[in-house]
Write a structure and sequence with these properties.
Length: 262
């Protein structure tokens, strides 16, 4: 048998056995965007919440489609099945196939451990908002300009939107909300680990978070270390979204919102 032949044709006569592996590697790299976009679709459809709510553990695409809050009436079990098959091939969900009464394949899906980071109903912070941020249309269009940006001159984002990202966010409340949701979830994940492992806040009197977003990091730290006065420093349009932490904490706690001069 000739190991250099893939799909009936010799793709690199000099390649040897590694050739198929490197071809698959290249194929995987080229098509990897499909995973991010399918995750986005699954998040939009509410698939991860529906899977984790399924009491039976494993569900067919029909059962799953019936539980999705966003589905059109009578729509889409076949499309949901396609989404689930792709997710199964990347181990986001597990798929078990059984033969039905007429010998047809019946696929059932259940969540893999990674789903806890993609659903919003597992009782902790979620990476779903980060997935929605990275695949947002305003960011995806900017990626189209990466090659041009690498040749020199303006950043990909400025080529696409005419202004730097910070300025664009200041003019676009929709996108600012998408980014802030993502940032808050990441901050909660990182800060809870920080608070578990780092014990250097005891002697801190005033803590300034530069680029602190809407203040979730400082909120967590000052809730634990109530003697700390927190100052959250960010751009005015970000600060405008920040909740007032005053009143949520004891009187010794003070939370200033300071806007950058930019
Ligand atoms: C990666 S985000 C960090 C988010 C934040 N740690 C949180 O928990 O949401 C970077 C932050 O830096 C802020 N930033 C960027 N340029 C700034 C500037 N010149 N002055 C103050 N903040 C700035 C952005 O508005 C953004 O909120």
């Amino acid at each position: 048998m000739d190991n250099n032949i893939v799909g009936g044709s010799r793709i690199n006569p000099a390649g040897g056995e590694d050739d198929e592996e490197t071809w698959l590697h290249a194929w995987g790299l080229i098509t990897s965007f499909a995973v991010s976009m399918t995750l986005k679709a699954a998040i939009e459809l509410g698939i991860f919440e529906a899977l984790s709510n399924a009491s039976s553990g494993a569900v067919t695409a029909d059962e799953l489609a019936a539980r999705l809050p966003t589905m059109d009436k009578g729509g889409g079990a076949a499309s949901v099945d396609r989404v689930m098959r792709l997710l199964a091939s990347f181990d986001v969900v597990k798929c078990v196939t059984e033969a039905g009464p007429s010998g047809e394949a019946i696929r059932q899906y259940r969540p893999s451990p990674v789903c806890r980071w993609l659903s919003s109903n597992h009782g902790g912070p979620s990476l779903a908002p980060y997935a929605m941020f990275t695949t947002d249309q305003d960011f995806l269009t900017a990626w189209q300009q990466l090659g041009a940006a690498a040749r020199g001159g303006q950043t990909a984002f400025k080529r696409t939107h005419g202004v730097p990202m910070g300025e664009h966010l200041g003019r676009n409340p929709r996108l600012l909300g998408v980014v802030d949701k993502a940032m808050v979830q990441i901050s909660v994940m990182v800060t809870s680990k920080l608070l578990e492992r780092f014990h250097g806040f005891d002697d801190v009197a005033v803590l300034v978070d530069v680029g602190g977003g809407t203040g979730s990091t400082l909120d967590m730290i000052t809730s634990r270390y109530k003697h700390i006065r927190g100052i959250n420093f960010d751009l005015p349009h970000v600060i405008s979204l920040a909740p007032s932490i005053l009143g949520m904490s004891p009187p010794s706690y003070e939370f200033d919102l300071v806007s950058s001069p930019c």
